[in-house]
Amino acid sequence: MKSNSPAQLRLRTAVLAALLIPLNAVFQMQPGLAHMSMISLLYNAVTILFVLVAFSRLIEKFLPKLALSRAELLSLYVAVSLSTAIGGHMCVQIMISVISYAFAFATPENDWQALFWNYIPEWLSVRDKGALDNLYRWDSTLYLEPHIRAWLPPMFVWGCFLFALFSVMLAINFIVRKQWTENERLSYPLIQLPLAMTSGRQRFFRSRAMWIGFGVAAFVDLLNGFNHLFPQLPRIGLTRSRENDLAELFTIHPWDAIDWLPVGVYPFAVGLAFFIPLDLSFSVWVFYLYWKLQRVLGDALGLPHGFPYASEQSFGAYAGLGVMGLWTARRHLVQVARRCMGVRSRVDDTDEPLSYRATVVWLLLSLAFLFAFCHRTGMSFWVIVLFFGLYYMLAIGITRVRAELGSPVHDQHFAGADEMTYAFAGAKPLGTGNMTMLSYFYFFNRAYDCLLMPHQLEGLKIAERAEIRYRRFGGVMVFATVLGIVASVWAYLHFAYQGEINTGWAGEEAFQRLEGWLTHPSGADGSVITAIGAGFLVSVALTLMRGQFLWMPLHAAGYAVTTTWTMNFFWFSIFVSFVLKWVIVKHGGLRSFRRAAPFFLGLVLGEFVVTTFWGMFRIVTGQSTYITIDM
Q: 121, 208, 359, 509: which sits with the fewest CB atoms below 10 Å from its CB?
């Protein structure tokens, strides 16, 4: 492909992104495709990159000026990834349900009007009964004047909130990028595929090993897809974790406490895990089994219900990883602070997306907006500090884990900053107003699989590897964020009014939880706080031990990430990949690893392309199709 041109990056990338992001939002909102953003490496973004690369190679021989450069291709990939995370299953897709549900489903029986309606600002919610009835009745259209009038003001406000929320993340990434990427040289396993696909020498697409891996994964998903349509055809059942549950073998007390031990081999997960450092992939499957054994031990000892509080320990572990990540960056952060104050500093911000001083100003302005927004809703200052402190520490920890481990998942279901704020404070100190707003924040705290911050940092690493100027690339990321918010909100409302998508369950979860908090209030939860503290300490201890003892095989990232719901589907794939990589490296060394790498990248690409194909088939025909990961 032709050499990078910064001018073309600025103009053509913006135009193409403006076309791709709305089209991607439409695809993302189709029935059965909601889980596309729950995996760390987004299959739709990879497939779009695959198509763009193929198109660029095709026209390069005839119209070379129209061929896309590597910088443009990767910028578009990052833009689509960011917009997909924004419109994801645990962000915009449930935001609209959460902010409208309390007024759409209040009844005399649940008495929500008396319980908390007065604590919901009018400018923050949709109260028009006609607009809400039509939304949840699914036989109308967004494009009616009363509907647009009802949704436009609160969507503008929430859009600004989301932009500020994501701006804080991006500013933090701008500050720590140099330390984590250049000084510590974290591995960023998840960017290997897009980098290989856009390599200028095209070795990737000329690799026989890659096409063998592609064929294996494609064959499995095509066969299972046709089996879904024509049950008389055979299928490969090992890819269906729910159907292969080893826990059924453990029926004797206390081993029956294992409850669920699914075994599945997903080609893309095997491929992704191949690029995880061996000690980290070892930690993942070891700690996954460790959590199962804790359940058995707790049942044997008759410990209280909820033990071992795995999600809460995981929360603490992520926080510990975030703290340790910032601690190891402390010298860099001091130099950044000196640069901001105009004092002589050893760090140079000439090539950064923004100067460090401008970045810190942007960070503070974004935080000020979030605090003003929350204060205007009636939240107490200390609750705002506690909630966002917990939220961003968790976000930093997950981002650090993604950069080091490249875990395929990090969902952290039902153990987010909102839940932990309630656990730390209890109902009485919080009061109805604070708890009501924490319920409104449920849409970006129910789970963290769509977290934008890791995608931002990986995008910056891609820019470094592809030698894209950070300042232009930073503009692409901001543009993709704004357009992603707008396109995702529009696409969701468009299809929701037509009855093609429904996430009303999220609003039901949020306000039934609030109802429980108000009608059955509890104080600070000592067990949860203890579990969070234990997770934090274990995470810090493991990190310190790895720094002192080179033989230490366990990593805190494995401890943090293995409590998640979706890890149940992938732990065995990571185990299989670990064994294969260990054998290859043990007997063939680094040379054999490099020779095998295209095969494993092919596994990822083949499954992602065929998964997108079945999604498009579903859109065109309206038929139910095979879903690679049936959650």
A: 208
- The reply to whether 487 falls in a domain is yes
Task: Evaluate whether 521 touches 443 at the Cβ level (below 8 Å).
Answer: no
**Per-residue confidence at 373, pLDDT binned at 50, 70, 90?**
very high
Q: Cβ(616)–Cβ(608) under 8 Å?
A: no
The C-alpha atoms of residue 335 and residue 393 are separated, in whole angstroms, by 21
Phi and psi of 550, rounded to 5°?
A: -65, -25
Q: Is residue 329 part of a domain?
A: yes
Q: Give pTM, 2 decimals.
A: 0.95
Alpha-carbon distance values, 163 to 76, 171, 324, 376 (Å) = 20, 12, 27, 18
Total number of domains in the chain = 1
Distance in angstroms (rounded) separating the CA atoms of residues 492 and 443:
14
Q: Which amino acid is at 426?
A: G
Q: Taking CA 88 as the corner, what is the angle to CA 558 and CA 50, rounded to the nearest 5 degrees?
A: 85
Q: Phi and psi (nearest 5°) for 245? A: -110, 105
Give 165-189 as a 3 state SS string.
HHHHHHHHHHHHHHHHHHHCCCCCH
Domain assignment present for 123: yes
Domain containing residue 16: 6-621
Among candidate residues 202, 149, 263, the one with its CA nearest the CA of residue 2? 202
Residue 553 and residue 283 in contact, taking contact as beta carbons nearer than 8 Å? yes
Residue 330: its pLDDT value, please? 96
Instruction: State the amino acid at position 378 in one-letter form.
Output: G
Helices (H), 178-309: 192-197, 208-229, 267-273, 278-301
C-beta pairs of 256-262 under 8 Å, 24+ apart in sequence: 256/299, 257/295, 257/296, 257/298, 257/299, 257/300, 258/292, 258/295, 258/296, 259/295, 260/568, 261/292, 262/568, 262/569, 262/572
Q: Is 576 helix (H, G, I), strand (E, B) or coil?
A: helix
Calpha distance 167→234 (Å, rounded): 49
pLDDT reported for residue 178: 95
End-to-end Cα spacing for the chain: 39
Residues contacting residue 297 through CB under 8 Å, at least 6 positions apart: 254, 303
Distances (CA, A) of 593 to 129, 145, 200, 380: 61, 60, 21, 54
- Alpha helices (H) along 347-469: 356-376, 381-404, 417-425, 427-440, 452-465
Q: At what angle do helices 381-404 and 452-465 cross, to 10 degrees?
A: 40
Residue 452 carries which DSSP code?
H
In one letter, which amino acid is 404? E
- Per-residue pLDDT, averaged over 7-25, amounts to 84
Classify residue 2 by its DSSP letter: P
Q: Name the least confident of 384-393, 521-530, 549-558.
A: 549-558
Sequence length of the chain is: 631
Per-residue tokens: 267: 């080609």
Predicted confidence at residue 243, as pLDDT, reads 73
Dihedral (Cα; 333, 337, 340, 345), 10-degree rounding: -80
Q: Decide: 554 and 286 in contact? Cβ < 8 Å.
A: yes
Output the pLDDT for position 560: 96
Q: Give the tokens for residue 312.
A: 């809460």
Query: Residue 236: pLDDT above 90?
Result: no
Answer for the pair 17, 478: CB distance below 8 angstroms, yes or no.
no
Q: Tell me if 491 is assigned to some domain.
A: yes
